[in-house]
Amino acid sequence: MRVVLVQPSLEDFYTTPHRLSALGAFCVKSLLENQGHHVTLLNYPLVAKKPRPVKRPSWANHLEPFLLEERGPVSYFTGWYRWGLDTEEEARDILSHGPDLVLISLFAHAYSEEVLTLARACGKIPVAVGGAGVSVHPEPFVREPAVDLVLAGEGEVLFREYSLDDLLSRIGGDKLIRTSRYCTADEMVPVISETTGGRTHRQAATLLSRGCPRGCRFCSNSLTQGTSLRRLAPERIARAFRNYLAVPDPRGPRRLTLDLEDDNLLFSRDYLRDVLDRLSAEWQRAGRDSQDLFLTAENGLDYELLDGAFLEELADRGFRQFNFSLATADPGRLEQENRFFAPEKWRSHLAYLKEKGIPAITYFICGLKGDTREGIARTLQLIHREPTQMGISLFYPVPGLEGFSGSDPYGGVHPGLSRGSMAYPWSGALDTSALVTAFRLARLLNLMKNEREAVLHEDLILTILREKRLYTYGRDKKKIPVPMQDGDLVSLTLEGLTYPQTR
Ligand code: SF4
């Protein structure tokens, strides 16, 4: 059977390469090819070098008062973009492959409109949809006449329990097919997916494990992967890496950053050591210099499970940057979110990294239920005091999380608003003004710690600190006050801050 497997083009203010890795789609491709099918994988968000500006949808109009023509280090998002082709072009391209079945993969429910629009453009060819974004809330796809099959669950289980002939024979009946279990470690498929590349460097992503037993309330990992941790056998990852390296690089040997996309890499040090040893051995077997293999964990390392010696070991083994996720540092919020907080460990890791000159980013979530301006200001200040850049994640719900379940998880609001860039007041704790202001403040505090950049924007920084009011650069690079800023949050956050900090 000829199958075209698609990761559709998507629209947003921004995206990151590792989000576009299509690891799930590559895994399904491998499973179907092993069953003898001819599979073409079209990862549309990565086809064009750059995203194109397109018209912002009307459901994002709540952001209108906060968006301005601005640039520079304290700005919010400005342009709405499309990564990939227009829907009609996508559909023409898909149909040109003569598929018997089009399988559309959705990694996050926030982009469901892109999937529904593409399904409608595919004409009479049978269309099935699946992926994490479908599994958490299949109902809108079941209701859509252009979708013939809705596949809810992990691909490794679905495509073992059902052959494609089984699936096609279901068309016309109950279109929702849901797995009743999660995949085992042996069923997992190792995938190395290349995301971006330049003249001297390329980037790829992989995933070693599934599931997490920790149960942080804001996290959707367990909704699609379950609560028991399963890990790919290290020798299978190594084989996948060997196969990846065996494909000649058209640009000649380039450095590689391999992102380990797992949420919980550190649960077993021996396992991680084994994997890293094997990756390094494969890299060297391919004749590559060990200094040219960089490792990252973009989804963040569980800093509580690290100690100084292991941090040092990971740095020696090729981690060139460390991402830590605090989630929240507000004591009242930690218990409610079932989240740990070990500030002394976090600080000592940052001190070590500073000494070694290794960059660190500390992430936190803003907009959780119960968040207050005081709590967010404290978290911003707490991270600002340490030798780390900060990353702010504006809370967005995934269907199935507490408060966002049932047949209408978004309470009648457009699902596209569950993009992190939307600053939508999902929990009701902070409004859009406070969320956008927190985002700008995080950028300002990062700027203040970046000596090389800060010196170029000293006037902007000093004006903001003096007036306790946010400014940005307008169209003609002139300083302009930020409209609709949350003055209380600005004052609380900037209280006591000086620039430079030693002055
Ligand atoms: S945030 Fe991380 S540690 Fe917490 S449940 Fe999710 S994956 Fe597990």
Major β-sheet profile: 6 strands, parallel
Q: CATH homologous superfamily of the largest domain?
A: tm_1862 like domain
- Domain unit count: 2
What would CATH call the class of the largest domain? Alpha Beta
Unreliable stretches: none
Our count of helices gives 18
Strand order of the largest sheet: 3-1-6-7-8-9
- What's the count of strands? 20
What's the helical proportion of residues? 25-40%
CATH topology tier name of the largest domain? pyruvate-formate lyase- activating enzyme
Overall shape: globular
Distance between the termini: 70 Å
Summarize the structure.
With about 500 residues, this protein is of the alpha/beta class. The chain has helices at about 25-35, 85-95, 110-120, 130-135, 140-145, 155-160, 165-170, 220-225, 235-245, 270-285, 310-315, 330-335, 345-355, 375-385, 430-450, 450-455, 460-465, 485-495; strands spanning about 1-5, 10, 40-45, 50-55, 80-85, 100-105, 125-130, 150, 175-180, 190-195, 200-205, 210, 230, 255-260, 295, 320-325, 360-365, 390-395, 470-475, 480.
Task: Tell me about this structure.
It is a single chain. The strands form 6 sheets. Strands 3-1-6-7-8-9 form a 6-stranded parallel β-sheet. A 4-stranded mixed β-sheet has the order 10-11-14-15, covered by helices on one side. A 3-stranded antiparallel β-sheet has the order 2-5-4, with no helix packed on it. The protein is of the alpha/beta class and 503 residues long. The chain has helices at 23-34, 87-96, 112-121, 132-135, 139-143, 155-161, 164-169, 221-225, 234-246, 269-285, 308-316, 331-336, 343-356, 373-384, 432-449, 451-454, 458-467, 487-494; strands at 2-7, 10-12, 38-43, 52-53, 81-83, 101-105, 127-130, 149-152, 176-178, 192-197, 201-206, 209-210, 230-231, 255-260, 293-296, 322-327, 360-366, 389-394, 471-473, 479-481. The chain folds into 2 domains: 2-47 and 84-178, 3-Layer(aba) Sandwich (Rossmann fold), CATH 3.40.50.280; 192-449, tm_1862 like domain (pyruvate-formate lyase- activating enzyme), CATH 3.80.30.20. The chain is globular and about 70 Å long. 34% of the residues lie in helices and 17% in strands. The model has no long low-confidence stretch (mean pLDDT 95). Helix 2 crosses helix 3, helix 9 runs parallel beside helix 10 (269-285) and helix 14 (373-384) packs parallel to helix 15. The protein binds iron/sulfur cluster (SF4). The site of iron/sulfur cluster has 8 residues, from loops.
